[in-house]
Design goal:
Elements lengths: L5 E5 L4 H12 L5 E4 L4 H11 L6 E4 L2 E4 L3 H8 L4
Parallel strand pairs: 1-2
Antiparallel strand pairs: 1-3, 3-4
Length: 81
């Protein structure tokens, strides 16, 4: 199975963003963290792709998980429970 490309669109003050990244770290998932509060290009990418401004937004290949949803992240990342 090929490694999935994961991006986390987040802000530094968002507690759910921190939980999402902690979940990925605990499960050994490599990801790129994009701070949409400071990175205008990342913010525009997130809005253009999802039509939303909610964080965290986790992009897994071409799928999105809006908000922190551990069950959905596990499913999309094909993690064992």
């Amino acid at each position: 199975m090929a490694e999935k490309q994961v991006k986390v669109f987040s802000t530094p003050t968002c507690p759910w963003c921190k939980r999402a990244k902690q979940f990925l770290d605990i499960n050994g998932v490599k990801y790129t963290d994009l701070n949409v509060a400071e990175d205008k290009a990342a913010r525009e990418e997130m809005i253009n792709r999802t039509h939303q401004m909610a964080v965290p937004t986790v992009m897994i290949d071409t799928d999105f998980v809006i908000g922190y949803n551990e069950k959905t992240l596990k499913e999309k990342l094909e993690l064992k429970t």
